Every structure is written in C-alpha cells, then in structure tokens.
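User: Let's play a game. I give you a shape written as tokens, and you guess the letters that built it. Ready? Here's round one.
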C-alpha cells in the first residue's frame, strides 16, 4: 500500500517431474535446481514472470510473447519468462498467488484475462506501463512482493507479503474523462470487497474512498490507487495500479485483521478472489462510465467516499495578492473535471485543487471560484 509518511504510489517447486524439466529452457531448469536450497529460494524467485490466460486465445498470445522475447524490464536483475502451462503441475509455494483459482473466479470478457505473475518484482506498474504496446488491453501484472513500488508524487509504495499488488492496462480516446477513471477503479475495489463478503455470508467490510486515490477501513489506510497515462496515436494509454492490504497488518492494518475482530468464525479473504471480483466489477462499472459518463456512477461513489458535507480549510490570496488567507468551505461532490466541488460560507461555489506540495490532499487546498 501507499505509505504516506515516506517521501521520494516461493514459487519454485521442491520436486519436478523429469518430463516437465525437459520442456523448460535450460536457464529455467537451472533455477529450479537451485531452488532446492531454501537459502536460494527467495533470491531466485525474484527473476521469474509467469504468463497465462483465461482462454486459448490469451494462452496463445502468452506463447507468442514469450517466443518473441519483446517484454522490457527496468529492473537491473534478469527476468526469466515462462508459461503457466509449463509449471501448472509443479508443487508451488502455497503463499504465492494461485493463478488457477483466480482464473476460475474471473468472468470478464476483456479485463484481467491475460495475466503476468511474479513472486517478486520491482514494480507491476513498470511492467505494464513500459510494455503497454505489447500487451492486450486489460492485461494485468500481479506480484506477491514489490521491491520498487511507488505511489502518487513518487512516494514509496510499501509492498509486503499479504498485500494484493497489481497493475493493468486501459485505453481511452476522450482525454476529458481520463482523470475520472481512477475513481472508477477505486469504486470497483470497494464494490469487490463488498461483493465477496456478501457471497461468503460474512460481516461486511466497509472500505471507504478518501479522495482522490486512497482506501480506508476503520479510519486507517488499507490501500491506494495509482493511474498514469501517456498519449500515443490519438489514444490515452492508462496504466492503473492497485495496492490493497489483505493479510498484512503492517504498516497500518488489513482486511483480514478487521474481519477477525468482527466475526467469531474464522474467515479470511483471499487475494485471488478479490482481484477476480475487482475485474468483474470494474468491467461493468467501466462500461457504464464510458457509455453514460461518471455522473451515472456518482450516487454510488458518494455513498462510498468519506467527504460529503466535510468542512475543510482552503487557501486564498487577499485582494492585494500578497498574503494567503484561510477560509472554510463544505464539500458537495465532484466537478466534471474530477476536482472537489465545494461551497463557501458566503454561498459561493468553488472547485478545490491540491497545492501539489502536501502528501495529504486536504492540506493546503486552493479554490477556484466557479461562475
């Protein structure tokens, strides 16, 4: 998750059938042998990226991607590419992301169907953003641990085991709505958690959205969203990253820790279920968003965020523009451009912008008066 106080958003088998070894490249076989030593397991697992798909179409694409060797990585450590079909029958780390379970729960037609998984990776966001043109839209990269994750404004993204860490690709043509897609992503996360709790018949975890891109539970931060975009060939290539504390209680708290306090029966949410539920929800919400605009999602979004009726202090320049004065305004919602809509004590409507210097968006807000 995004650790706001910092500044700058065992996968290998211990036993492999000989027939399976013959089907793997020599450098993969060597890594498998080294993994027999527990001391080497963590280091070796850092350099593997597993490709797979929901259907034969995505699996054929995975084979092509591996064969053509076109993926680029910013991490200085070499990355070995392998197919999930090559390791499906191996005895893998039970704590690692369970690809088969995820695919079984996934029910989308586009998003999340092509998956890249690594036990240990520099940054899932870097993988999708620097390989955007080589990947299908909706492709996702997930890791058990990140070593170089980042959040908003280059803040450090804490990525311990137990945290759900994934990034995926979106492509859009209308630049006016690109800033709003992070709100659709945030809403899909909260709806996914709600949906899983309902299906399991367990206590609802009331995950809330802190504008613009943080997720909170019981007053503590449990996740964050990072969306970046580039413009190419008349389209906006958006890379969306999500970090959500599922089983890791540090650095703040996590979903399962809260769940244990709410119910006497032992229940645990799984990362695979949450990510599949996220894409199932996101695909539906994104379809509504692109067809009807974000306004159609606003009622649900406002039920989920923390800010309706919130009073905040904003900064204004005095008439001589030589002194900053502070005033209190009340948040009403979002403007069409995705900033905060507020009303001042004298009844003036305004749009709130962050000053760009604070880690907390609600410190140093600047207002722009609306006609």
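Assistant: Ready! My guess for every position:
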């Amino acid at each position: 998750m995004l650790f706001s106080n910092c500044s700058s958003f065992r996968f290998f088998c211990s036993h492999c059938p000989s027939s399976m070894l013959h089907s793997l490249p020599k450098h993969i076989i060597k890594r498998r042998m080294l993994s027999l030593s527990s001391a080497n397991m963590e280091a070796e697992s850092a350099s593997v990226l597993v490709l797979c798909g929901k259907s034969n179409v995505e699996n054929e694409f995975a084979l092509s991607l591996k064969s053509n060797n076109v993926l680029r990585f910013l991490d200085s450590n070499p990355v070995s590419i392998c197919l999930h079909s090559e390791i499906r029958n191996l005895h893998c780390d039970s704590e690692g992301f369970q690809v088969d379970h995820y695919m079984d729960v996934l029910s989308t037609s586009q998003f999340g169907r092509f998956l890249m998984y690594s036990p240990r990776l520099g940054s899932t966001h870097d993988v999708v953003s620097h390989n955007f043109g080589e990947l299908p839209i909706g492709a996702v990269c997930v890791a058990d641990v990140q070593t170089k994750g980042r959040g908003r404004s280059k803040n450090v993204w804490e990525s311990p085991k137990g945290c759900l860490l994934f990034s995926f690709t979106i492509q859009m043509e209308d630049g006016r709505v690109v800033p709003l897609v992070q709100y659709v992503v945030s809403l899909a996360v909260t709806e996914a958690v709600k949906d899983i709790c309902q299906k399991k018949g367990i206590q609802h975890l009331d995950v809330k959205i802190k504008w613009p891109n943080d997720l909170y539970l019981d007053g503590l931060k449990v996740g964050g969203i990072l969306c970046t975009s580039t413009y190419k060939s008349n389209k906006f290539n958006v890379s969306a990253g999500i970090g959500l504390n599922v089983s890791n209680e540090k650095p703040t708290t996590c979903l399962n820790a809260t769940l244990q306090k709410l119910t006497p029966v032992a229940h645990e949410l799984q990362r695979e279920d949450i990510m599949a539920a996220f894409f199932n929800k996101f695909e539906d919400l994104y379809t509504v968003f692109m067809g009807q605009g974000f306004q159609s999602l606003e009622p649900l979004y406002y039920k989920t965020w923390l800010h309706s009726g919130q009073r905040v202090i904003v900064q204004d320049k005095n008439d001589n523009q030589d002194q900053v004065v502070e005033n209190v305004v009340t948040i009403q919602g979002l403007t069409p451009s995705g900033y905060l809509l507020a009303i001042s004590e004298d009844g003036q409507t305004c749009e709130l912008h962050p000053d760009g210097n604070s880690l907390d968006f609600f410190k140093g807000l600047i207002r722009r008066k609306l006609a």
